[in-house]
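ok so i was messing around last nite and threw this chain in just to see what happens. nothing serious, just curious
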Amino acid sequence: MDLLMAHIGSDGMDLFPATMIIGFIWPEFLLLGHMESIIYGSLSESIEDLVAGRVASFSAK
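result:
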């Protein structure tokens, strides 16, 4: 769980307060929110890397 929380620190901070509040009422939602932010965070990082790679290869030509 600590590893999960550490990863969220960078990607899902905007969602964190809302998921915490709902998480007290419905614990499964808390976990779902964390998983979603991890998936979204890693997807957006991959897309950023892809775009950066394309821009770098284009400007190198």
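not much to say yet. The longest helix spans residues 27-60.
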